[in-house]
Amino acid sequence: MESLPTLAASPISIVLSGRSYLMTPLSLRDYGEIELAILDRAKPDHRVSPEEMANWMSSSVGLAYVLWLVLRTHQPEMTLSGCRALLASETDWGRIERELDRASGLPVGNCRGQTRRNPRTLVSRAA
Question: Which of 98, 74, 75, 96 has its CA nearest to residue 11?
Fold first, then answer.
């Protein structure tokens, strides 16, 4: 059985670059926004598969976007470029992955359905 904070979609704290932030779980609307972000770069009539969504969420662009989605409710001043900068300054990617999984409201490791690559090596390519 899930914990009450998870079921109630309570905010979760994360420390990034020495500062504490509150994350909210990903909602169905957030997953819809993720799909739209993928479709913005796709051909007309493209359908996003679950595997494609998981792969995109694992990319540096997708990871920054997911971080922005979970932070924006309690940190409305946070921007997508600010999330990219936060990710570029971090070194413990395993911890960030676990925290984003917790924020997803799903069991750890299941937000994207796979293990992410180290996004730090990809941040410079995310333009």
Answer: 74
- Total domains in the fold of the chain: 1
CA 3 vs. chain centroid, Å, equals 21
Angle between helices 60-71 and 28-39 (to 10 degrees): 150
CB atoms inside a 10 Å sphere around CB 91: 8
Summarised one tens digit per residue, pLDDT across range 13-61 is 888 888 999 999 888 899 999 999 999 988 888 999 999 998 888 888 8
What pTM was computed for the model? 0.76
- The DSSP annotation for 2-46 comes to --HHHHTT--EEEEETTEEEEE-PPPHHHHHHHHHHHHTTS-TT-
What domain range is 11 assigned to?
4-125
Per-residue pLDDT of 78-97, as tens digits, reads 999 999 999 888 877 677 77
